[in-house]
Amino acid sequence: xQEAMAIKQGQKDQSLRIVASAWTAPPWMKDIEDWYxxxxxxxxxxxxxxxxxxEHVSTYADYLIKYLDxxxxxxxxxxxxxxxxxxxxxxxxxxxxHFTPETQREFIKHHLGPKLKAxxxxxxxxLIYDQNRDGMADWTDTILGDPETAAYVYGTAVHWYESTNKxxxxxLRNTHDKFPDFDIIHTEGTID
Length: 192
What we know:
The chain has 6 helices and 5 strands; from the N terminus they run H-E-H-E-H-E-H-H-E-H-E. It is an alpha/beta fold. A 5-stranded parallel beta sheet has the order 1-2-3-4-5. The chain is globular. It starts with a helix and ends with a strand.
């Protein structure tokens, strides 16, 4: 990151907007008490990254803020953050952690949003979702449709997977038309 920042200093546009997205909370915060559980015959090949334990939902918000503090202490200012990368999980293929639209809404509304506002990171951009374009409507309806939570949110992070030939224009357009004050940002993608 420091190398990228140094490169940007030599360019006309010197801004570098870093979006942080944790793949998981530490195992001790999660109900499975591990990074992930692989799919196997014993679980009908339905691996999981698990969910936050109820007693650690607030702790996870503190954990993310400590991460931001540590980077800031090294001279790296993070522009935006998502509560977690790929909240649907990845079927236990690698570390992950699950949120539903409802649990992410409550996490932002009652924990992450207020704690960020009370911190040195009150201008940080909070992005919701951070998974494939085709599934974002439920997330935006649930989170951006709640004015209390939406007050803490900048926009929606989406991944460019699921299809290499379908853009999901309707999904993107409908979300933009329904919530025009919130950005939609591509945060991850490859050619499948």
